[in-house]
Design the sequence.
């Protein structure tokens, strides 16, 4: 009985840790894309203000 309870507790702990890691990865990705969107908007605004051409492409895979 104790072994079954211990196994259940270990399984719950593993699921909790997996969920926390997944959440932190999602938060990090969202912050990266918000930062990319901010710089994209800023550079586009400067280009429009001064009549420049070109566009901002972030380093590494850009969202579609």
Sequence:
């Amino acid at each position: 009985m104790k072994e079954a309870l211990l196994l259940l507790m270990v399984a719950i702990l593993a699921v909790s840790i997996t969920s926390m890691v997944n959440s932190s990865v999602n938060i990090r990705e969202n912050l990266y894309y918000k930062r990319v969107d901010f710089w994209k908007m800023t550079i586009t605004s400067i280009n429009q203000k001064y009549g420049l051409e070109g566009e901002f492409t972030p380093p590494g895979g850009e969202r579609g």
